[in-house]
């Protein structure tokens, strides 16, 4: 299975709660650019797992617009992938999806969880998860292997 682990785009600094932080203008642009790259790399997704936090959902909206809204029926908003979710639970679920034959999965979440997921699946995390960073992992029976890291801005 090809798994694309993505950190949401750049978000505003202040909001009533962390869950309510929205993407800023740059974050929307980053998400669109990464959506374009994703579409050139993975023409379709079997499932898209997204955190229920505003900035993650808005990142999905931008990517879905690049895919002409075809990802809407693939969307699964999952409370387990908020910033301090359990990477072991996420890894177990992703293993089930792989066993079920899913080929391409996109996961949109937050720091520190995105790094923890990569480490859980691959034994290490070679990525610095700047906003909108995507790590492509190929999962097999044993351990995942990082195939590509797609950065936009590193600052």
TrEMBL record:
Keywords: Hydrolase. It comes from Aggregatibacter aphrophilus. The keyword Hydrolase applies. The keyword Methyltransferase does not apply. This is Phosphohistidine phosphatase SixA. NCBIfam families: sixA (TIGR00249).
């Amino acid at each position: 299975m090809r798994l694309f682990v993505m950190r949401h785009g750049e978000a505003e600094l202040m909001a009533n709660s962390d869950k309510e932080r929205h993407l800023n203008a740059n974050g929307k642009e980053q998400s669109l650019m990464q959506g374009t790259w994703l579409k050139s790399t993975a023409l379709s997704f079997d499932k898209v797992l997204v955190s229920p936090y505003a900035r993650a959902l808005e990142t999905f909206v931008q990517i879905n617009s690049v895919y002409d809204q075809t990802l809407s029926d693939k969307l699964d908003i999952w409370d387990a992938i908020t910033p301090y979710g359990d990477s072991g639970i996420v890894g177990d679920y992703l293993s089930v999806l792989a066993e079920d034959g899913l080929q391409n999965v996109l996961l949109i979440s937050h720091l520190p969880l995105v790094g923890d997921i990569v480490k859980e699946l691959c034994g290490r995390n070679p990525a610095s998860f700047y906003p909108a960073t995507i790590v492509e992992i190929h999962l097999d029976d044993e351990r995942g292997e990082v195939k590509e890291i797609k950065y936009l801005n590193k600052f």
